[in-house]
């Protein structure tokens, strides 16, 4: 178990998103991206002067973009853990997320990593948003899929798919998650298997990590000044491509009654 994740400070990641559809037509794309990795409990005690939080900025982070939309996203996350009976996640809580850029954001998925005081992973939450303004959280805890091993970096984790994301995928089957983290790099992989257990989608987001400084933030922004607007534009462009290729379309079902599934 690797618990040496480097300095506990706000980080910026620069890397790429990959997406491959295997069926009924094969379609793959990749594009550069950047994101924030925030130590939420440390920031509660010691705000970062570089991070524009809950205020206007070229690049900013707003608590209301997460969870129940309240003013304190960490408080919401801590309530979620308590409601699920997780009482030993008493270490750092890291949030991997897109910021607002020029006041706009769309976050297809954010990842919350809850650690114990000894640095071990205790729980992961994949917080998913769709383009219909809906949100759902997949809580990953306890044991890795089929192995009986404790939660940890690099282990496979599974969750049933219960939330509609793409109109070109039925709300069925399941996800396979794998997460990797060192002091220098992070990778999150999410693969979607259909109802018969056959691989359908393979996705990942990865990046090299560095402390969040004004220079690093300026460099990332200059490389992709319309980051989050570009995320939404690419989603709709890929949807248009799938329409042209006559991939079957699935209507949006009623969302799950509960915000969290486990």
Task: Detail the topology: elements first, then pairings.
Layout: E1 11-21, E2 27-39, H1 40-45, E3 52-53, E4 59-61, H2 73-83, E5 93-97, E6 100-101, E7 109-115, E8 121-129, E9 135-141, E10 157-160, E11 174-181, E12 185-193, E13 199-211, H3 214-223, H4 227-244, E14 260-261
Parallel strand pairs: 3-4, 9-14
Antiparallel strand pairs: 1-2, 1-13, 2-5, 4-6, 5-7, 7-8, 8-9, 10-11, 11-12, 12-13
Give a quick summary of the entry.
17% of the residues lie in helices and 36% in strands. It is an alpha+beta fold.
Number of helices: 4
Number of strands: 14
* Uncertain parts: 144-148
Helix content: 10-25%
The chain-level structural class is alpha+beta
Q: Report mean pLDDT, rounded to a whole number.
A: 92
What number of domains? 1
Order of helices and strands: EEHEEHEEEEEEEEEHHE
Biggest sheet overview: 11 strands, mixed
Given the C-alpha coordinates, what overall shape results? globular
Question: Alpha-carbon distance between the termini?
Answer: 23 Å
Assess the beta-strand content as a share of residues: 35-45%
Radius of gyration (Å): 18 Å
* Sheet with the most strands: spatial strand order: 10-11-12-13-1-2-5-7-8-9-14
What does this structure look like?
With 262 residues, the chain is an alpha+beta fold. The chain has one domain. 17% of the residues lie in helices and 36% in strands. The protein is built from four helices and 14 strands. The strands form two sheets. Strands 10-11-12-13-1-2-5-7-8-9-14 form an eleven-stranded mixed sheet. Strand 7 and strand 8 form a beta hairpin. The radius of gyration is 18 Å and the shape is globular. The relative contact order is 0.20. About 2% of the residues have low confidence.
């Amino acid at each position: 178990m690797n618990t040496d994740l480097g300095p506990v400070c706000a980080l910026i990641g620069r890397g790429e998103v990959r997406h491959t559809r295997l069926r009924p037509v094969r379609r793959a794309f990749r594009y550069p991206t950047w994101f924030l990795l925030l130590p939420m409990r440390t920031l509660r005690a010691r705000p970062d002067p570089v991070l524009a939080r809950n205020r206007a900025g070229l690049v900013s982070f707003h608590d209301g973009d997460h969870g129940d939309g309240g003013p304190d996203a960490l408080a919401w996350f801590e309530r979620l853990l308590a409601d699920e009976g997780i009482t030993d996640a008493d270490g750092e809580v890291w949030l991997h997320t897109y910021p607002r850029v020029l006041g706009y954001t769309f976050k297809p998925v954010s990842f919350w990593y809850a650690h114990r005081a000894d640095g071990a992973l205790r729980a992961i939450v994949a917080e998913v948003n769709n383009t219909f303004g809906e949100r759902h959280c997949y809580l990953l805890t306890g044991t890795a899929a089929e192995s009986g091993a404790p939660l940890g970096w690099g282990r496979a984790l599974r969750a049933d798919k219960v939330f509609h994301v793409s109109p070109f995928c039925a709300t069925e089957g399941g996800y396979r998650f794998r997460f990797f983290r060192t002091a220098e790099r992070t990778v999150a992989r999410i693969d979607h298997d259909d109802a018969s257990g056959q691989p359908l989608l393979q996705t990942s987001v990865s990046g090299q990590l560095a402390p969040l400084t004004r220079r690093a933030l300026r460099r990332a922004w200059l490389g992709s000044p319309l980051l989050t607007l570009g995320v939404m534009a690419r989603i709709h462009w890929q949807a248009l491509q799938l329409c042209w290729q006559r991939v079957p379309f699935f209507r949006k079902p009623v969302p799950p009654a509960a915000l969290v599934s486990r």
